[in-house]
Design a protein that fits this description.
single chain, 418 residues, alpha+beta, Rossmann fold, 9-stranded mixed beta sheet, 10 helices
C-alpha cells in the first residue's frame, strides 16, 4: 500500500509569506523579494481596517484587538485595506460614506514598483504617503535620504512618521499638497503617485530630471476608474509613456469629482428638443466596469463627458453629461433607457450642441474595429504650457497616433484618426 505524505501546513502570515505569495503570482519585480520580505506590512496598518471585496463591493471591518488572527491574515494577503473613511471624520466599525485612505493591494504596489524601474542611487518623490508602507519599501531598497513622501492629511502624515520611525526606516515625510511636489528635494529620478489623478501636476514634471519617470494612476471623467501610466519626462513641459494595467484608486483630494447634481447638467426644456434614436450598443457595453478596456478606451475618445447609471424596477437608464470647460459653455445631455422587458425597444434622447450618445457609439465602434485593444495598447502625452495649463493627449500604439475626440468626426477610423 502506497503511503501518502500529507500536504505541508501553509506558512504563518508574515512579510515573508506575502513576498512568497507575490513571487508565486509572478508579480514580484526582479530584485524586490527580499525587500518585501524584510518590511512588515503589519507595522504600517492600523488596528482597525476594512478589507475590500471588489467582487461584492463590500467592506469587512477587522479589529486587531478583537480578531487578531483575521486581521493578520488580511494584512499579509493580497487584499486592499481601507484605513480611513471620510477624511477622518468617522467613528465606529461600520464603513463610512467615502473611503479616503487605504493600504493598497500588495500586487498593485508591486505593479507600480515594477513600472518605476528603480535603480541604485535613485531619488524618489512619493505622493500620497498613506500608512507609509510603500515609502518604507522604496527606502529599504534605496537607503537613507533617497525618498521624500508627501501626505495632504496631517493625521495620516503624523501616523506615517511614527510608523516609519518604529520600523527603523528613515524617510522624509512632508505634510502638504502632493500636487506641488517637494521642491526642497528636487530633482528626482522617479515620481510615484499613489492616488488617482485626472490631471498630471506640472510640479511633477518640473521636479523630475530629464529621462526620469512618473508612475501614476490616471483616468478620464467618463469613468471613476484609472490605469497606471508610466511617463518618461523629457523636460519640464513634456512627458509621454504607455498605460500598463487597469486599476482603481482613491482620487487626489483636490481632484475628486464634485458633481452638483442632475439639474445642473441639463439645459432647460431639453426633453422637448431632444433628438431621439435607438442605441446600437448594449447596456453591458456602455456600463463597463472597473477593469473594462472598452470603457477606458471610450473615455479617451470622449473627453469632457461623465456617465451615471440609474437602475429602476423596470428599466436601467444611462445618463451622459457634458462637463463644460467654462461657465458659459452650452450644456449637452443624453439618456438611454434599456427596458428590462426584452420585448420593449431601448431608446436614446440627446440634446445640446454635442450628441454625446453618438460620440460614445462612435468610440465603441472604433475600439471594436481596432480589435478591442487592451489598456496597455494606449498611452498618454502630457504637455505643460507656459501658463501652467496641462494638456493630456491619449494615443494608440505610439505617440504619433493621437486619439482625436469623437465629437470632431462622425466616426473614428481604425488607425485612430478622424
Amino acid at each position: 500500500m502506497t503511503a501518502h505524505t500529507p500536504p505541508p501546513e501553509p506558512p504563518e502570515p508574515s512579510a515573508a509569506s506575502l513576498a512568497a505569495l507575490l513571487t508565486e503570482a509572478d508579480v514580484m519585480p526582479s530584485g524586490w523579494a527580499d525587500v518585501f520580505a524584510a518590511v512588515p506590512r503589519g507595522a504600517f496598518v492600523p488596528d482597525l481596517v476594512w478589507a475590500h471585496d471588489p467582487a461584492a463591493n463590500s467592506y469587512t471591518p477587522l479589529d486587531c484587538t478583537s480578531a487578531p488572527d483575521a486581521w493578520v491574515a488580511a494584512v499579509y494577503a493580497n487584499t486592499a485595506l481601507v484605513t480611513q473613511w471620510d477624511d477622518g471624520d468617522h467613528t465606529g466599525t461600520a464603513p463610512g460614506r467615502l473611503a479616503s485612505s487605504s493600504a493598497s493591494m500588495p500586487s498593485v504596489v508591486a505593479d507600480m514598483i515594477y513600472d518605476l524601474k528603480v535603480s541604485d542611487g535613485d531619488r524618489v518623490l512619493d505622493v500620497g504617503t498613506g500608512t507609509g508602507y510603500t515609502a518604507a519599501l522604496l527606502a529599504a531598497r534605496l537607503g537613507t535620504g533617497q525618498v521624500v513622501t508627501v501626505e495632504v492629511d496631517p493625521e495620516l502624515a503624523d501616523q506615517a512618521r511614527a510608523n516609519l520611525a518604529a520600523a527603523g526606516i528613515p524617510v522624509t515625510v512632508v505634510t502638504g499638497d502632493g500636487t506641488k511636489g517637494w521642491p526642497g528635494g528636487a530633482p528626482y529620478d522617479l515620481v510615484h503617485v499613489t492616488a488617482g489623478t485626472r490631471s498630471i501636476a506640472p510640479a511633477w514634471l518640473a521636479q523630475t530630471r530629464p529621462g526620469g519617470r512618473i508612475v501614476a494612476p490616471w483616468g478620464t471623467d467618463y469613468s471613476p476608474h484609472d490605469a497606471l501610466v508610466a511617463l518618461t519626462v523629457h523636460d519640464p513641459h513634456h512627458a509621454s509613456g504607455p498605460f500598463t494595467v487597469a486599476a482603481s484608486f482613491m482620487k487626489l483630494r483636490g481632484q475628486r469629482p464634485n458633481r452638483p447634481g442632475h439639474a445642473a447638467y441639463t439645459p432647460p426644456g431639453w426633453t422637448e428638443n431632444a433628438r431621439v434614436s435607438v442605441p446600437t450598443v448594449t447596456l453591458g457595453q456602455v456600463t463597463g466596469g472597473a477593469y473594462d478596456a472598452g470603457e477606458f478606451a471610450v473615455g479617451l475618445a470622449v473627453p469632457g463627458c461623465t456617465k451615471a447609471v440609474a437602475p429602476a424596477a423596470d428599466a436601467t437608464t444611462v445618463w451622459l453629461y457634458s462637463l463644460p470647460a467654462a461657465a458659459d459653455d452650452a450644456l449637452s445631455v443624453a439618456a438611454a433607457t434599456y427596458p428590462h422587458d426584452a420585448d420593449q425597444a431601448p431608446a436614446v434622447w440627446q440634446a445640446g450642441p454635442r450628441s454625446l450618445w453618438d460620440e460614445v457609439e462612435a468610440a465603441h465602434a472604433w475600439w471594436d474595429g481596432l480589435g478591442k485593444p487592451e489598456v496597455y495598447d494606449f498611452g498618454l502625452t502630457v504637455t505643460v504650457a507656459n501658463d501652467g495649463t496641462v494638456h493630456h493627449t491619449p494615443w494608440h500604439d505610439n505617440p504619433d497616433r493621437p486619439i482625436p475626440a469623437a465629437n470632431t468626426a462622425a466616426t473614428l477610423d481604425h488607425d485612430g484618426q478622424a
